[in-house]
Amino acid sequence: MTHRAKSILDAAETAITGLTTTGNSVFRGLPPAAAQGADLPALFVRMGSDEPDPEQSAWPRLYSNLEIVIEGVIIASATMDDDLLQIREEVTKALRADYTLGLSYVQENMEGAAGAPEPGGETRQLAYYPMNWIVRYSRNWDDPST
Fold it and tell me: How many domains does the chain have?
């Protein structure tokens, strides 16, 4: 079986694939530095912290808050802020279209902090924009796949 956190990451990736601005340029588990060779604009999805919520948990159910980091990457330009905010809007609409991400054990997903856009890149000037999401889910205390 699969850890529920992996299933949640898979569902989030599916939800943000095919957006108007980024299309199918969605990558998982790669550092955003890989954007040097990617079709841009693009999104990079990776797992953040996965913190149990002891106040809500009681055996046999463990409630946890999984952080998902979605990083938008574009070629830097004079319209960089507008372009990155457009990506953020599309990501928000896609993830909030179904607050459970289609998974029965997800209680909600919520938009977290978005970091400041950061310039970078070696061969082309890029802008990186991290967007954090928190997904609250439940699992069996003794088996993270159920």
Answer: 1
Q: What is the largest CA-CA distance in the chain?
A: 53
**Cα–Cα distance measured from residue 65 to residue 79, given in angstroms and rounded to the nearest whole number:** 34
Structural domain includes residue 145: no
Residue 134: inside a domain, yes or no? yes
- Name residue 62's beta-bridge partners: 139
Is the Cβ–Cβ distance between 30 and 44 less than 8 Å? yes
**Dihedral through CA 105, CA 62, CA 2, CA 9, nearest 10?**
60
The pTM for the full model equals 0.91
Task: Using the predicted structure, report yes or no on whether residue 123 has a pLDDT greater than 70.
Answer: no
Instruction: Give 114's strand partners.
Output: 131
Neighbours of 77 (CB within 10 A): 11
Query: What integer pLDDT is reported at residue 76 of this predicted model?
Result: 87
Q: Kindly report, residue by residue over 28-48, the tens digit of the pLDDT.
A: 987 666 766 678 999 999 999
Whether 33 is covered by a domain: the verdict is yes
The CATH number of the domain where 133 resides is what?
3.30.2000.30
Domain, as residue range, for 27: 4-140
